Amino acid sequence: MFRRLSSSLPKDPVWPHDLGELGYFVNEDDQIRSIKYPTQDFRYYINKNQRYNEMHGAAMNACIRNLVLERLHKAGLDAIRLPLGTGPEDPHVPILVSPDLHLRKRVVVIFNEHAQELGIWAYREIGTRSTINRGSAVDLVRYLQTPTNRHRRSDCPGIILANPGQLLWYRKGKRAISHAQRHVLPRKSAVHPPVTMASAKNLIPYNEDPEEHVEYIFREVIPHLCNPKAELNIIAVSDASDIVAKYIDKHWEDERRFHERITAMVFTEPTFTPEDIHNDDFAYFLTRRARGYILGAEGDPTGVLAPKLSFDRNLNIYSSEEKEYSECIMPAIWRVMIDFFQQVADNDEYSEPEIIEPPDEEDAVNGNGFSGIGDGIMWGGANGHGVNEAGFTWGGANGHGANGDDVDRAITDADGVNGDAVEIVLADAPNEHGVNEAGVNGHSANGDAAGIILGGRYARNGDGIHGTGEEEDPMVINSE
Questions:
Q1: CA 32 to CA 454: how far, in whole Å?
Q2: Cα torsion for 200, 204, 207, 208, to the nearest 10°?
Q3: How far apart are CA 239 and CA 270, in angstroms?
Q4: CA angle, corner 455, sides to 451 and 460, nearest 5?
Q5: Which of 298, 111, 91, 123 is nearest to 213 (CA)?
Q6: Which of 165, 222, 368, 374 is the most buried (most CB within 10 A)?
Q7: Could you report the per-residue pLDDT of 118-150, keeping only the tens digit for each?
Q8: What is the CA radius of gyration of the chain?
Q9: Cα–Cα distance between 268 and 418 in angstroms, integer?
Q10: How far apart are CA 128 and CA 466, in angstroms?
């Protein structure tokens, strides 16, 4: 039997945590590029041995973290250790906050997903797709702290960047790390397994997992650091969305007065359902002052409303311009989120569009119009990209079916309903025939100049399109 001595095993690769020594630089467009080939972005695969690639990528990520944290500090954020009052060598997790939170009238609290590190939205966004500031919280923080024509700097909201991703304590390095970082800690050799971190000594008190971290932020950080009358705006990313929503639901009306202080919320890729929300008042709040953003369909701009998903979730769900990776939703639409918070802050009566049940497929195909709805509702998005529901392509705003544009849309790929080709004019067109010879289930509109607008009354009981030639103003549900 043969055995191999540990001294003969390949050494664990080590790469410098320095951008220049790795062969990269930050160009004038804030992109990380190769020094040797200035048009080439970060190259992950450099060796057939995956451990070399992992350690090389980890070194680049460490450089990115250092750059991002340096910029966030320059933008005015301070690092504090949790639990509050913990010493620098004791187990702790860092978060970033505005230094004068106790003076701010409004505070934006951001919970990132557990797979990312402090201040980082997506490494892929920084290293290959765009810029350092876009792929991290740097642009968002700077935008929040920039006074507008209507607001002084002292009126800008405060910021709390939570850190549910780095909740393991690396005792040798005396720092908090993420689960991904654990796999790239130094090993005895390149073929040894990852460092085991199963001991209680590797856990951070009161922040042992993302659920405890969220609770600590709400139970300790906000009460101790923020003005007790400050309004709270909440952003929860990916898996943090469910954790935050369920926690607030449970504590909506306790002594911390979340029901009075939280004025708006935004979630990315939320998966919680109405069954997960038990407080009726909080459920009502979600319909009025909260939004969800998900991966968008190809060709859809930011802000297209998904009516069926919104109804199922009891939360207005919008598409983002990001089409591939959920971790890249934040870089794509953080500005939309912050502007939404400003809208709410400027208007005490602000309310999201009412969530109404969309037509189901059976009713739509059988010509029964809208199931359970008295008036047809135009489920419109922005820039003319509507939402395809039950075989009907509902037109959006900004030039498609609005403002007098003659835009034809066929039902179920121009096959109409029950085989009749139906042509719907999405315009205020008094001289147009509402239905081209055949209506729903073969009933015409009696040749009346219907000037059909999506949003008027639709065919009920197979009687065509209202059949009166009357026009009615549509109720447009839009993202803006």
A1: 48
A2: -20
A3: 7
A4: 85
A5: 111
A6: 165
A7: 999 999 999 888 899 999 999 999 999 887 655
A8: 27
A9: 39
A10: 54
